[in-house]
Amino acid sequence: MSDYIHMTHGKAHQREELLRMLDITFDFDKGDTNFLNLLPKLYKEQYNPAENNIILDVEGDMRAAVGLYYNTLTVGDEKLKIGGIGNVAVHPDHRGKGYMQFCMLLALDEMKQNMTDISCLGGARQRYEHFSYEPAGIQTMFSYRKCNVVRTLGADRKSKFTIRELQADDTKYIKEICEIYNSRIFRAERPEEAMFDILHSWKSVPYIALENDEVKGWFAYYHDRQGLHEFFYKNEEDIEDLILLALENSGLDAVKIPVPVFDKPLYRYLALNCETYDVCHAEQFSVFCYENVIRAFLKLKTSYQNLPDGELRLFIQGEKLPEQLKITVKDNNVKVEETDEKPDIVLKHLEAMRFIGSHYSERRNEAPAFCHAWFPLPFYGYGLDNV
Question: Does position 31 have pLDDT exceeding 50, yes or no?
Answer without folding.
Answer: yes
